[in-house]
Specification:
By secondary structure, the protein is of the alpha+beta class. About 40% of the residues lie in helices and about 20% in strands. It has helices at about 10-25, 55-70, 90-95, 125-140; strands at about 35-40, 45-50, 105-110, 110-120. Strands 2-1-4-3 form a four-stranded antiparallel β-sheet. The longest helix is centred in the C-terminal third of the chain and has 18 residues, at about 125-140.
């Protein structure tokens, strides 16, 4: 039996995710908040654009937490919480609030979940694209040369 050690999400990784998400938002002229959580759900990085609505800080964190807990982009879960959906009662069943709005994306390394990034403040589709761009940038940055 072999065990593979996967490097956890580092503060440097988290800062790279925040920077990439903020650059994507700036390019789209959107003002957002970005949250990065490690695999245990602990805050590694957070940034709110000075002009972003205050609630975007909370929504970015809840989106990251939801993506982490369910290991799925929140954009893929929106229909699951609608009446009759698989997770219809989940938003009210837990003490820790989940948020089923696009903008949260899990982060994997070597096939293992190592954290999540959440973006709030833009339209949900924008937030999802900014978070996805951040994860893509991190993966490219971590490719061997």
């Amino acid at each position: 039996m072999s065990t593979t050690t996967v490097t956890p999400l580092t503060v440097q990784d988290a800062e790279a995710l925040v920077t990439a998400a903020c650059r994507a938002a700036e390019a789209a002229d959107a003002t957002v908040s970005v949250t990065v959580l490690d695999a245990g759900g602990h805050l590694l990085a957070f940034r709110r654009d000075d002009r972003a609505v205050l609630i975007s800080g909370e929504t970015s964190t809840r989106k990251a937490y939801t993506a982490l807990q369910l290991d799925t982009p929140t954009a893929d879960l929106v229909d699951a919480v609608q009446p009759g959906g698989l997770f219809h009662t989940l938003p009210t069943a837990l003490d820790r609030p989940l948020l089923f709005i696009a903008g949260g994306v899990p982060v994997h390394r070597d096939g293992r979940l190592i954290g999540a990034v959440g973006v709030g403040g833009g339209a949900p589709e924008q937030d999802h694209s900014f978070a996805t761009a951040a994860v893509r940038a991190l993966l490219q940055e971590n490719q061997p040369a």
